[in-house]
Amino acid sequence: MRAYNFSAGPSTLPLDVLEEVQRDLLDFEGTGMSVTEISHRNKAFESVVREGESLLRELMHIPDDYAVLFVQGGASMQFAAVPLNLMHNGKADYIVTGNFSKKAFQEGKIYGDAACVASSEDRTYTYIPDLASVPFRDGTDYVHICSNNTIFGTRYVEFPEGKAPLVADMSSEILSREVDVSKFGAIYAGAQKNLAPAGVTIVIAKRELIGDPLPACPTMLKWKVQDENGSLYNTPPCFPIYVATLVLRRLKKMGGIKEMNAVNEYKAGLLYDFIDNSPFYTNKVEKKYRSIMNVPFTTPNADLDARFVKEAAANGLVSLKGHRLVGGMRASIYNAMPVDGVKALIEFMKKFERENA
Question: Are residues 270 and 245 in the same domain?
Fold first, then answer.
């Protein structure tokens, strides 16, 4: 029996995709080689990269003047790549709404005048700052945000608008809801939450912004170089790119991001409605800013939290322990988490409440 995996990442993948991967592990596209063995220069694999890019462009309605890249190093590597590619005048604004946006800000300060212009740290990142009152500075190269905060369970319901290009880390929500890519200078996302196994990161960047990286930028981090080489400048993370392409095919077949978003809203609604109507469980995030991907919650005390995680795992509901910065529990209900998985979690929560209230 497969468990329902609520891990924040690497996360659950669609079963039908895993079954297709299983078949290709021995013979990929009639090559007589495993998909894990095939050269990235092989025509069969080059077609996978091209299809993956094409599907991303189609599903996200990415304009032609944007580069779409498959790169290595995780989203954390892009914390440095962003300023190295975009901080042309040495100045950038950051909105800090969680652990990863704080890390991105700290990395940005290495390369220039990076300023935290707004933060929700004062209330343990349980809200998104009022964008209308953010003191954005003049002459900045970009404004950086993390659109969905994996650890603390918040998301932006609207995005900053201003003179500077907007850059967003969308690791934990990419492809979960529709966004207007044309309003962003760059988007990046680690794939291990909604797309693929860990190892590949998606970068979507407006080409007019990436033509002149800082002199200190390593070649491997130059988005322009990756774009000019079709994400094949060196050996890329082949297997995660292949799996991502399968996931994108599946997403297109089921109706695209709009349909996926409807399912995600439904799943999150079920879970939040149960928590809100329970005297036993608590979610501290301001309702307006609640993530539909990551749902943190607690019981009345830490001992019960630990018991919950242990007993849930024994019932096939795994990886529910909250991040060490928050504690409690966290249910990551990404695209691949079926509705039945959320319903199973709620039924267990009901049972645990009855037995421990």
Answer: no
